[in-house]
Design a protein that fits this description.
Blueprint (H helix, E strand, L loop, with lengths): L6 E7 L2 E7 L1 H12 L3 H15 L6 E5 L3 E7 L3 H8 L8 E3 L6 H9 L13 E6 L8 E3 L5 E7 L5 E5 L5 E5 L2 E7 L10 E5 L2 E6 L7 H8 L8 H20 L5 H15 L4 H9 L5 H13 L4
Parallel strand pairs: 2-5
Antiparallel strand pairs: 1-2, 1-4, 3-4, 6-11, 7-8, 8-9, 9-10, 10-13, 11-12
Helix pairs in contact: 1-2, 6-7, 6-8
Length: 303
């Protein structure tokens, strides 16, 4: 069972709360009783539950006679599950009823090394490195329980990621992918978790507009490879706008902005973006690339 298919349930019976984990089949059994066989009410209950998966609501509710209700939600990930097992979503006293949990939910707890009280199940875990090429757009599970979306692969092991929990932007340094399973056991789909760990993270906040991506690339990225004219023009365009951004940035002293403008004029022959684009498209800067190619032919292969 995937964590996203697990349903967290809190039964409130006359003020006493009991937590348990169930699957869709178990939820439907409870919903049928709560809705008294009304197809319309049952459809509404299922729609409300799936609203928690889509982010439209935090919890859905089932109400029974006798001052009893059940609050339920699809699990969004390991961090939320740990919070549920720790009672972070309860009001006052509560207990966890393991006997009411669906078997596949308890199996999922084992895969993620969790006991029903949220504590680690196994004292020793084995980590095995997995070769992987990270790319922008993929979602990575961190062994600390959080999930991250890759915004950019700055280098093979340095990633710019966004936390799916709180939208925090982070540069993960030394990111590695691992398969984790209990030490001494044969790994299989019932005991293995695949996720990342990193050496350390550089936290950049949540406002992406305040991040200077050029500086990030210089600090953590690998050098740009110039293998053809298209690569050269891309690099030339980035260099132009690095200096143009300094020239346009408000709050900098006039001498700094003027120096950036002079540098643009000296390097590119213009500080106007429209003129630069025309010159770039017409190949006015391609000579830098051809000069390097000619130099390679003269010097031969490096020894």
């Amino acid at each position: 069972m995937k964590l996203e298919d697990m349903i967290m349930a809190v039964e409130n019976r006359k003020g006493t709360e009991t937590n348990f984990l169930t699957n869709m089949w178990g939820y439907m059994e409870m919903a049928v009783k709560a809705c008294d066989d009304s197809a319309i009410d049952l459809a509404d209950a299922v729609e409300a539950l799936y609203g928690t998966k889509a982010g439209k609501a935090d919890w859905s509710d089932l109400y029974f006679v006798g001052n009893r209700s059940i609050h339920a939600a699809f699990c969004t990930g390991e961090a939320q599950l740990r919070g549920f097992l720790a009672g972070n979503f309860n009001n006052g006293g509560w207990s966890f009823d393991e006997e009411r949990c669906a078997k596949d939910c308890l199996d999922a707890l084992r895969i993620y090394n969790l006991k029903p009280d949220g504590q680690p199940q196994f004292p020793y875990l084995h980590y095995e490195r997995v070769e992987h090429t990270f790319h922008a757009g993929e979602v990575l599970h961190n062994m600390n329980g959080n999930d991250y979306r890759v915004l950019a692969a700055l280098s093979p092991d340095d990633l710019l990621v966004m936390s799916l929990t709180d939208s925090q932007l982070i540069v993960g340094r030394g990111v590695k992918l691992y398969e984790r399973y209990p030490k001494g056991e044969r790994p299989d789909s019932d005991s293995m978790v695949t996720g990342i760990e990193w050496d350390h993270g550089v936290y950049l906040g949540q406002d992406i507009t305040r991040i200077d991506f050029d500086i990030l690339k210089q600090e953590y990225g690998k050098p740009d490879k110039v293998e053809n004219v298209s690569d050269l023009r891309d690099k030339t365009r980035r260099n132009f706008w690095m200096q143009k951004n300094v020239e346009q940035k408000e709050g900098l002293p006039d001498r700094v902005r003027n120096a950036a403008r002079d540098c643009l004029e000296n390097t590119f022959g213009t500080s106007e973006p429209e003129v630069f684009d025309r010159m770039l498209d017409n190949g006015m800067y391609d000579g830098m690339y051809h000069a390097r190619e000619e130099q390679k032919q003269i010097s031969g292969k490096s020894r």
